[in-house]
């Protein structure tokens, strides 16, 4: 939807996007973000990051991007301030303040607890006692430490049996335990390579819609993978986020496969691979007038 809106509001003269397109795109993200945030803060942040990336590729000016970012932050702040309704007093777990979640809080207490546990109290992680609140991240750290540099080889994981959600939300920890730091870096590079290939396809698209579409699909997959890796490695607070094409989950595989299908379709039909000028002109004339905007990132 964002690719369609921005392509219809593309400014051919400045290679940017009209204010109407930026506002409509931000409104779409705000609406869907509002629907998502109660059940998944991470998914809302992903949606915002994807939209911002597409705006950058679409040629939106930096001052407009800053305004959009401020609006996103204000909307999130308003929701968190007036939608939390916390009633209980702070408690502590391992020295970190924790808010007991109640029915009136929804997910807010959970988010707060996770952020506070992530911040900790200054002690190293290995000094914390393992309890019901932190056992996921603690066992994930143990799995990664056990993997070392080269791993224990696939199938020899020690933590698979006791790490909760080892097959989905924490699969990257098992990947590192089995294949070590080397294997973890290889997986990371493969996702970044996917983004680089998508960027290469986008740079060869004649139309801005095709470029935005392929970039949107690529960053959806790669950002989700980066979020997953950041959570598992302890760089970000705990949040359920699968690793695309690796974690167990039917809906995730279906959506990721659709994204790959779209990217392959763009690569086959919309990217220029030695196409003749007549073919490019015929393609342009077959499109509606508001979808004929040229790709501002195209490399000649």
Q: Any key phrases for this structure?
A:
mainly alpha, 300 residues, 3% strand, two-stranded antiparallel sheet
How is this fold's topology laid out?
Layout: H1 2-8, E1 10-11, E2 16-17, H2 19-36, H3 41-58, H4 62-83, E3 91-93, E4 96-98, H5 108-119, H6 135-147, H7 171-203, H8 208-232, H9 250-269, H10 277-286
Antiparallel strand pairs: 1-2, 3-4
Describe this structure in words.
This protein has helices at 2-8, 19-36, 41-58, 62-83, 108-119, 135-147, 171-203, 208-232, 250-269, 277-286, and strands at 10-11, 16-17, 91-93, 96-98. With 300 residues, the chain is mostly helical. The protein has a domain at 134-300. The strands form 2 sheets. The protein has a two-stranded antiparallel sheet. It has a two-stranded antiparallel ribbon with strand order 3-4. The radius of gyration is 22 Å and the shape is globular.
Largest sheet, described in full?
Answer: 2 strands, antiparallel
- What's the end-to-end separation, in Å? 27 Å
Please give the count of helices.
10
Instruction: Name the helicity range.
Output: 55-70%
Supply the helix-strand structural class: mainly alpha
| Topology, number of strands | 4
| SSE series | HEEHHHEEHHHHHH
Provide mean pLDDT, rounded: 81
- Give the radius of gyration: 22 Å
Write a short abstract of this structure.
This protein is mainly α and 300 residues long.
């Amino acid at each position: 939807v964002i690719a369609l809106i921005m392509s219809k509001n593309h400014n051919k003269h400045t290679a940017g996007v009209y204010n109407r397109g930026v506002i409509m795109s931000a409104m779409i993200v705000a609406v869907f973000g509002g629907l998502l945030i109660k059940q998944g803060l991470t998914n809302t942040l992903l949606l915002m990051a994807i939209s911002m990336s597409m705006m950058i590729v679409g040629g939106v000016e930096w001052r407009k991007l800053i305004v959009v970012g401020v609006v996103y932050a204000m909307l999130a702040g308003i929701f968190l301030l007036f939608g939390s309704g916390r009633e209980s007093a702070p408690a502590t777990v391992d020295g970190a303040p924790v808010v007991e979640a109640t029915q009136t809080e929804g997910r807010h207490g959970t988010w707060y607890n996770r952020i506070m546990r992530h911040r900790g109290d200054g002690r190293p992680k290995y000094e914390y006692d393992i309890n019901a609140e932190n056992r996921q991240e603690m066992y994930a750290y143990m799995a990664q430490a056990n993997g070392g540099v080269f791993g224990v080889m696939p199938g020899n994981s020690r933590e698979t049996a006791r790490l909760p959600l080892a097959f989905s939300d924490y699969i990257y920890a098992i990947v590192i335990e089995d294949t070590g730091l080397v294997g973890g870096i290889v997986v990371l590079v493969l996702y970044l390579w996917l983004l680089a290939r998508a960027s290469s396809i986008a740079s060869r698209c004649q139309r801005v819609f095709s470029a935005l579409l392929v970039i949107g699909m690529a960053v959806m997959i790669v950002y989700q993978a980066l979020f997953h890796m950041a959570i598992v490695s302890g760089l970000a607070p705990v949040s359920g986020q699968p690793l695309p094409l690796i974690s167990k989950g039917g809906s995730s595989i279906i959506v990721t496969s659709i994204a790959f299908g779209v990217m392959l379709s763009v690569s086959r039909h919309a990217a220029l691979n030695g196409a003749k000028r007549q073919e490019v002109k015929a393609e342009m004339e077959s499109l509606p007038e508001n979808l004929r905007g040229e790709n501002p990132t195209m490399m000649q």
